[in-house]
Design goal:
This protein folds into two domains: about 5-105, D-amino Acid Aminotransferase, Chain A, domain 1 (2-Layer Sandwich), CATH 3.30.470; about 115-255, D-amino Acid Aminotransferase, subunit A, domain 2 (D-amino Acid Aminotransferase, Chain A, domain 2, Alpha-Beta Barrel), CATH 3.20.10. Helices cover about 30% and strands about 30% of the residues. It is globular, with a radius of gyration of 19 Å. About 35% of the residues are buried. It has helices at about 25-30, 50-60, 70-80, 135-145, 190-200, 210-215, 245-265; strands at about 5-10, 10-15, 35-40, 45, 85-95, 100-105, 115-120, 150-155, 170, 180, 205, 220-225, 225-235, 235-240. A hairpin with a 2-residue loop joins β13 (about 225-235) and β14 (about 235-240). The two termini are about 25 Å apart. It is of the alpha+beta class. It has seven helices and 14 strands.
């Protein structure tokens, strides 16, 4: 059954193509706002509370008022209208005072992803906040695609690995140790990243140079939409798409989702 994309704008639910808001909103004019993307499993949002917690933290960083109670109520109504299909839920709060909740089709994902590194200097003011100011992230992806990759890997000017524009990265060093950039390096506090670390328990966090990552045996990305996705190559260096640590992370995250779904029924 095809997914029906619907959108709630300040509580008014319409088909996606009929949703409207005033053009003169600094969320559109200046990218001034915050957002979250939540995975829906059979219509049920995974870790919605944690996503809303992060939405509030992001909004506080840019001094944006957020009415969480209204968002929760509007999301609940939207989910009832949506039904029981897998999808993604996008939640947006704009500087102009719009609360947007959208049911969207899950994007098609390849079995693995090839990355190209792109130099990127984190914005100190916005580091750690999930805002609408994603222009640099999207341009990084276009630059990577122009180099025959399918995604970008953001790397600080000093060579320290950050993350892809819409996910986080983990890799296994030569001796099998699993590593991921620390939050202090300048990355977002990813909810899926946190789940992977909690379930595996032996992940090292730090500031790592790109050369260290290029010497890895395997790597994978993690995000709400991707879940756990193997990396096939970085800057042309081939990696093991079926590595043991990647499979372990995939199984662990699948187990987390299975346990959560069992508790929902």
């Amino acid at each position: 059954m095809p997914l029906r994309e619907i959108i709630s704008v300040n509580g008014r639910i319409t088909p996606a193509e009929e949703a409207v808001m005033p053009v003169r909103d600094d969320g559109l004019y200046r990218g001034d706002g915050v957002f979250e993307v939540v995975r829906l499993y059979e219509g049920r949002p995974f870790a919605l509370g944690e996503h809303l917690d992060r939405l509030e933290r992001s909004a506080a960083r840019i001094e944006l008022p957020v009415d969480r109670a209204k968002i929760e109520a509007e999301v609940a109504h939207l989910l009832v209208a949506h039904g029981a299909q897998d999808a993604e839920l996008r939640i947006v709060v704009t500087r102009g005072g719009r609360r947007i909740a959208a049911i969207e089709e899950l994007p098609p994902l390849a079995p693995s992803v090839a990355l190209a590194s792109v130099r990127y200097a984190p914005t100190v003011i916005l580091t750690g906040a999930k805002t609408l100011s994603y222009g640099a992230n999207m341009e990084a992806t276009r630059l990577a695609v122009a180099r025959a990759a399918s995604g970008a890997l953001l790397v600080r000017p000093d060579g320290v690995v950050l993350a892809p524009p819409t996910s986080t990265i983990f890799w296994a060093s030569g001796d099998g140790r699993l590593r991921t950039p620390a939050l202090g390096a300048g990355i977002l506090d990813s909810i899926t990243r946190r789940k992977v670390i909690e379930t595996l328990g032996d992940v090292e966090e730090g500031e790592y140079q790109l050369d260290e990552l290029l010497g890895a045996s395997e790597a994978f990305l993690a995000s709400s939409v991707r879940e756990v996705q193997p990396v096939s190559s970085i800057d042309g260096v081939e990696l093991d798409r079926h590595g043991a640590r990647t499979q372990e992370a995939r199984a662990a995250f699948d187990g987390t989702i299975a346990d959560w779904r069992a508790n929902q029924s």
